[in-house]
Amino acid sequence: MAQTECATDMDESEDASYLVHKQLQDVVKAQREVLMRFNESSHTQAQSDSETSVKQEMYDLLFEELEREKNHHLETQSHLQAERLRREFAEGEVDILKAQMERERKRYEECLERMKAEAQSESAHKSEMESQFSMIAYEKQQKENLVHLNQTKIQDLKKRISKQKQNHRKQIDEVNIRIQQEAYINKMLTGKDRKSKQK
């Protein structure tokens, strides 16, 4: 029975020790939770302060960026205005050059038309001169042919005349010989008659 009471006392002592240990664990757990909530609260506050600081910094950065954008926009507008003025000036120069080129084109076309007309006139004159030259060359050839023909005729006439002269000279010589023969015969006959009469 003593052993039973001792065992009971030991069980009760273990139960009490367990309860104390559990209560201590609960207290520690509660303290941890409080510490965690405090840390979370502190962290949340620090994070809030940090976010506020970050927001301020972002605001400052955005404000500076906006100012830079404004300045850049103004510079861009100024640059665009300058470019617009230069473009308008360039367009004015282009219009002047176009007008000048148009005048030059008209002057060139007029000059080209005059040159074409002169070339056509010279071509017509050249054609007329060539036609006249061809006609003169033809007449010259005809005259040369006629001269050659006349020269041939003259040579033929000269040959005929020379041959006729030779024939005439031969005939004259024959006539002279005949006359001389007849004169000789007459002389001989006349001399015989005289001798006969003298006898």
Largest sheet: none
Distance between the termini: 262 Å
Quaternary organisation of the protein chains = single chain
Order of helices and strands: H
Helix/sheet category = mainly alpha
- Give average pLDDT, whole number: 77
Low-confidence stretches: 1-10
Shape: rod-shaped
Backbone CA Rg: 79 Å
Structure summary, number of beta strands: 0
DSSP strand content:
under 5%
GO molecular function: DNA binding
Keywords: Coiled coil
Coiled coil: 63-178
Protein name: Putative spermatogenesis-associated protein 24 isoform X1
Task: Describe it.
- The chain has 199 residues and is an all-alpha fold.
- It has a domain at 55-184.
- It has one helix and no strands.
- The longest helix has 197 residues, at 2-198.
- The protein is rod-shaped.
- Mean pLDDT is 77; it is low at 1-10.
